[in-house]
Amino acid sequence: MPSPSVIRKFSRNVSFASTDSEATSTTAPRKPELASGNTFDSLFNNSKYADVKLYLGESKVQFLAHQVVLGTRSPYFDDALRSEFKEGKTHEFTYDKDSPHALWRVLQYMYTGNYTDEPSECLETEGDDLELLKHPRVYALADMFRMEELKNLSCKKFELQLQEHWITDAFPDCIREVYSISTEGSSIRKTVVDAIFSHRKVLVQKRLFQEAVREVGDFALDLVLKMTNSDAC
What we know:
Blueprint: E1 52-56, E2 61-65, H1 67-73, H2 75-81, H3 86-90, E3 92-95, H4 100-112, H5 134-144, H6 148-165, H7 171-181, H8 187-198, H9 200-203, H10 207-215, H11 217-232
Parallel strand pairs: 1-3
Antiparallel strand pairs: 1-2
Helix pairs in contact: 1-2, 4-5, 5-6, 6-8, 7-10, 8-11
């Protein structure tokens, strides 16, 4: 598996283009809470009753969504859709800097309660993420959209994936990206460190892994702390 040539940070700030000099939130009532699971399976990628447009990737592939789904699944969208900012009025969102396939998987989760590793046919013009970057990029978006259950799910999927792919040459680049898109103490970082600790005697002999340790200071510190705490037990 080839290593990614560019390690790109996800946007972690909730920012919307304001149409007024001073934008304030409306006092409109919140949408009712919805049961988790597959309540909206039939509406996923379906124009029926759609009242929100999202544009994914550099190609700006249009995804028709539903305010009641986005607003109840994500506090980020709940705030945005009820705000006086441009997006709150037009119900249109553009995400041309983030991974379109990761965005698709987040939307799939919102509607179905799960997401697949398979690429979307609707995004055939946009290359899918490398295998080891799929779940970390979903995690980063879940963090931005304030979706704790999706963060937990993506971490579990990532943990299972690392049981097989920790030995690949793509893993060091995965480490770099995980540490560039997450914060100190995050569960996705812990997943990486735990996997490395389990295979440290093999990984420490690999040149690409050694380079990642030298380059990513927070990662090196987390690994040292993990080893120190283990020795103390």
